[in-house]
Write a structure and sequence with these properties.
By secondary structure, the chain is an alpha+beta fold. It folds into 2 domains: 318 residues, Metallo-dependent phosphatases (Purple Acid Phosphatase, chain A, domain 2); 197 residues, no CATH class. Helices cover 19% and strands 29% of the residues. It is built from 11 helices and 30 strands. α1 packs across α11 and α3 packs parallel to α5. The radius of gyration is 27 Å and the shape is elongated.
Length: 578
Amino acid sequence: MRNTTVSNSLILALLLACGSAAAQSTTALSYPNTRNVIAEPTPQPSTFTVVTLPDTQNYSEFYPQIFDNQTQWIVDNRQSRNIKYVGHVGDVVNHGDRPNEWANAKSAMNRIHDANIPYGVAAGNHDITPSGVAGSTYLRDPYLQNFGPQTFAGKDFYKGASPSGMSSYQTFSGSGREFLVLNIECDTPYHELVWAQDVLNRNRDKAAIITTHRYLQDAEDYTAGVPIVPSGRYPSVWYGLEGTYSEGGIQSNEFFDNFVRMQKNVFMVQCGHFHEEYRQTSSALNGNVIHEVLADYQDDPNGGDGWLRLMEFDVQQNRINVESYSTTRDEFRTADESRFQLNVDFDRYRTTRNVAVFQQGVGGYSGTKDTWISQANRDASYGNDGTIIVDDDVNNNIFTDNRGQGLLRFDEILTATNEPGKVPMGSTITSAELRFQVPDDIDTPFASPNFMVYVLLRPWDENSTWNSLVGGLVSGQDYGQLIGAFSGDNNPDGDFVRILDVTAAVQLWANGQANYGFAIIPQIISGNDDGIEMFSSEASNILLRPALEVQYFRMIPSPGTAVMLTAGTLLATRRRRK
């Protein structure tokens, strides 16, 4: 509904839109921007195809033969087009409470299922409500009965589902590498994203696609290009009028800001819901391009006229060739919004290094400790607070300066016994990033202080106070090496995120130095009384809590290498003795 030899062994060891519910017209229209298919293309070895099924709700209700035709076409063209994955953007059915529509959809999708083509199905608003209306009864069972985890038992490509079963992920191989697809429930609540974050953390060796339902709109196409409502992600004003469909669901801009852009391995978000074709590009925090793509044809004749999306991945050329094709009309659309090319440097979206990510509440991790201490309230402890205050004067008094100092530590991140998900002691840390958010920044126009992050040198816990630490944290005594600094001002105003390179600190800990965490100390500027608040590990929204990402390699010679190195050492010793 509209509504991306010995010497060799030694080297290796060291370098390791909502459509109407009424029946659609069956008139076949003439499309000026289409071309007839002359011959099936022969894919090159470096190319493969991903097929996207846009909203099929009207097919499931009125035109099941078109849905059948689409999925049969996919099966018939699997070899010629080297089809590796099929994704459905949601609104599988028109009415989530009508078994006959689910039966029609299931019959069509079973063609793909029985052919063992990897596929995934996102839940749309029509799939989780009786008729796609926000505020109506939220339905999980019909979707779960038809496309829940049990449906994919024995399918190797299906890797798992969220605890609710409403989101899932699959992997597929193409051109010699693995890709991952996350299917996220429409207007997803945060608990689905906490699960999804763990999935992406554990699969950083795979470039990833996110499939969801309501995300983009192209309102300008309906207003002759006049941006009464600018095209892009769904605007807040529409959510105000329309509401959200999932329980505790969030808006698309919030979804992007707090989840999508945080990822290093996501190169595409695809969606449906709004009858149009549209695309835009955005940037992840690390600078990677994220392609955001909308395709939905539900208001075309015959419930969508069999149109679907073909995405040909050319890994060697770092691009995806996208086309819109109708399996019933046997035609391609040729408009710019229907036929285009996406540039994707696939290697930027995956890493071959070991990666460990630590964030309280994600993937079972619970080792974050943080608090702040106040010179104004010297016996008060703040370890259970949702924020950490760092301030050169917590009382904002022009006559006194009472400091607020932050303490942050990630426990249980190192292992001497190769525990999964942890960093082995002695590893070489190639990078370590500390990410946190500052919801309350510097507001004064008269000063723009920085905040320094140091390596802590002393024990503490979340009950620590200014007095229990004997007069707060003292430079050279309680904290030592400066790791980095960050601005207290959010720029732009709505962007709370800070990312700090803490590789040096994590390397110290991997080398055996005691991990007491970080001290966060305000810059003292005369006349400034303003400070910041950071979200802590107790923040109610898990995704806003501090996170530490570590990339590393460990020099562990294989048994054969160890023998060769020993032999080489003995030979060198004998030569020296001669």
